[in-house]
Here is the input.
Amino acid sequence: MPYSVAVSGASGYAGGELLRILAGHPDVEIRTVTAHSNAGDPLVAHQPHLRSLAHLTLQPTTPEILAGHDVVFLALPHGQSGQYTDALGDVPLVIDAGADHRLTSKDAWDAFYGGAFHEPWTYGVPELPVAGGTQRTALAGASRIAAPGCNASTVSLSLAPGVAAGVIDPGDIVTVLAVGPSGAGKSLKTHLLGSELLGSANPYAVGGTHRHIPEIKQALAAAAGTGTDGIHVSFTPVIVPMARGILATSTAPIAPGVTDAQIRQAWEDAYAGETFVQLLPEGQVPRTADVLGANTALLGLAIDRDANRVVVVAAVDNLVKGTAGAAIQSMNIALGLPEDRALTVNGVAP
Here is the structure.
């Protein structure tokens, strides 16, 4: 019997991407889709590309409607998932694509989000190096999973191998990201209108204010096996006129006495055999076009000896590997299914 699935926030970008991937998953049945203001509409009125799901109607997002499924995905704005999760105690597996269950520190939540703090769930980035192994181990059999922030997981996957191996200094991390506006959700916002975006690059959340910073520090601390006190991240995102994608350029100082060979070996060891996180050959860097529609993070590694810094360029599709793909990959692991079920490494081109 297939696992019955409900997806909340189904009229949004993250919800739509979850449904697109789940529609091709042989082990699940998409039984229920929910929304708030769009409840009562046909799903295809808001997701016209999902033709195989044209029979579904958006229902109101309530605990009663979400209950009774094997798996529930919450694709809601930050701060809205927590009001439902306590009422879904009988659902075997709940996966939150929002931020409500990502952070372990209440102080960090209060500083960057505010509102009610909810218990942290198992972090949904399987390949993330952590002390003693990878996050995949924690996901096996998990019943509550926090899917990652797209920017946060991109930066964390970029630098965690170096932190775990001790070849870089996490006390002076600098990362600049070119990001597509779909990461900001589907709600109408003036600064995300085409006339505002086209022909322009727009920095935002500058000066250490972006909400993904504590998530990055938390992930890198897990890689180091330490607390977050010695980890400092300068994080600058820039919206650029592409619908999807993240191109993150992250740098960190090289630890004293470390050779170039040791640096590259750290990343090769961390991602050897990984399907969805791939280190490119020396001298190559990825493009966002290479990962469009794929559950793949491509990494290019360079060593800048003049500046004494490691440079990692990472490309992901923010809606796939950054959000929905990571959530479904984590679901597969939690349920004991093949990890790559319904997920692809192949992008869409041109």
User: Anything to note?
Assistant: The longest strand covers residues 28-35.
